[in-house]
Amino acid sequence: MTSGRKTKTPKSPTPAPVDAMLCFAIYGAAHAFTRAYKPLLDPLGLTYPQYLVMLTLWEEDGQSVKTIGERLGLDSGTLSPLLKRLEQARLVMRRRYTQDERQVRIQLTPKGDALRQKAVGVMQEIGSATGCSLNEAETLREGLVDLRRRLLKQPTT
Amino acid sequence: MTSGRKTKTPKSPTPAPVDAMLCFAIYGAAHAFTRAYKPLLDPLGLTYPQYLVMLTLWEEDGQSVKTIGERLGLDSGTLSPLLKRLEQARLVMRRRYTQDERQVRIQLTPKGDALRQKAVGVMQEIGSATGCSLNEAETLREGLVDLRRRLLKQPTT
DNA sequence: CGCACTTAGATTGTGCACAATTCAATTACC
DNA sequence: GGTAATTGAATTGTGCACAATCTAAGTGCG
């Protein structure tokens, strides 16, 4: 309540900035996450988006590009070069399915699978960095997932 | 303790993915926001980060690049080209301060100031697209701001 | 078969994001 | 005054993100 923000330019209508503040907050939190992960991921040779892709593969190996894209909300234009870099780093292999040669199956190499061990430490450090209880984190997560679903549901009109 | 999430590949240790899920959620929500804004911002000729910069200028005109960067958490390497595009679009002007010529003062043009009117509509549409009550939005926002603060507070070791 | 249609990935072009570097202006200290 | 250190922007290089486009493989229907 109160919402005592000082507006310094009262000449034109500046509407209640609640939604603006929410978009600021998400924007800032997303970047903060990326920055917090960076020093932990650098020793592993992974960027943050690459780490997210590896997480999905550690959870289930051998997914197609499309499947990974659906989970992370990314398209092939983003994933193709990213997966190429992971392939160059010898963390994954890319093979066409024999039944349907349009699909590319992404599989962990032994090196990529082994990296999972180190990732465990990363997750723990981030967990402590957030300083959240599991309850807090889960509440926040649910709110975000909900928000995301609602935002994507709009056909834009 | 407990952390009863189902793991699909039990062969290697996949730790409780609570934090991983949170980082997924933030990542996804941030992208969802960008996508939700895109069709609304396209007619204005703004990208989402450009819109955020304009929001800060509508709130307070004549800020330096450094000030804008601190508010949004961006550095000059990101802002310089972005502000140049806004200048090319005749939405802002860039002038050096006379007292300290190292600083660049970003000022709205009449066109940039006028755009504020249309932005009001954008904010309202997004507000309804989220389908959140103001309370929900505010709770979520506070959680994110908190999280961000804690993440950034780590000196990384 | 032959043709339109759909789908999976890859490619191209624009723009954001940051680390590292460079440059100029200011400030501090002698 | 003169040199060193600091500060504000800009530049360069790498990588993410998406729209639009393209190719090739699969599918449907006559």
UniProtKB/TrEMBL annotation, chains A, B:
<dbReference type="InterPro" id="IPR036390">
    <property type="entry name" value="WH_DNA-bd_sf"/>
</dbReference>
<dbReference type="Pfam" id="PF22381">
    <property type="entry name" value="Staph_reg_Sar_Rot"/>
</dbReference>
<feature type="domain" description="HTH marR-type">
    <location>
        <begin position="19"/>
        <end position="153"/>
    </location>
</feature>
<dbReference type="InterPro" id="IPR000835">
    <property type="entry name" value="HTH_MarR-typ"/>
</dbReference>
<keyword id="KW-0238">DNA-binding</keyword>
<keyword id="KW-0805">Transcription regulation</keyword>
<dbReference type="InterPro" id="IPR039422">
    <property type="entry name" value="MarR/SlyA-like"/>
</dbReference>
<keyword id="KW-0804">Transcription</keyword>
<protein>
    <submittedName>
        <fullName>DNA-binding MarR family transcriptional regulator</fullName>
    </submittedName>
</protein>
<dbReference type="InterPro" id="IPR055166">
    <property type="entry name" value="Transc_reg_Sar_Rot_HTH"/>
</dbReference>
<dbReference type="InterPro" id="IPR011991">
    <property type="entry name" value="ArsR-like_HTH"/>
</dbReference>
<keyword id="KW-0963">Cytoplasm</keyword>
<dbReference type="InterPro" id="IPR036388">
    <property type="entry name" value="WH-like_DNA-bd_sf"/>
</dbReference>
<dbReference type="GO" id="GO:0003677">
    <property type="term" value="F:DNA binding"/>
</dbReference>
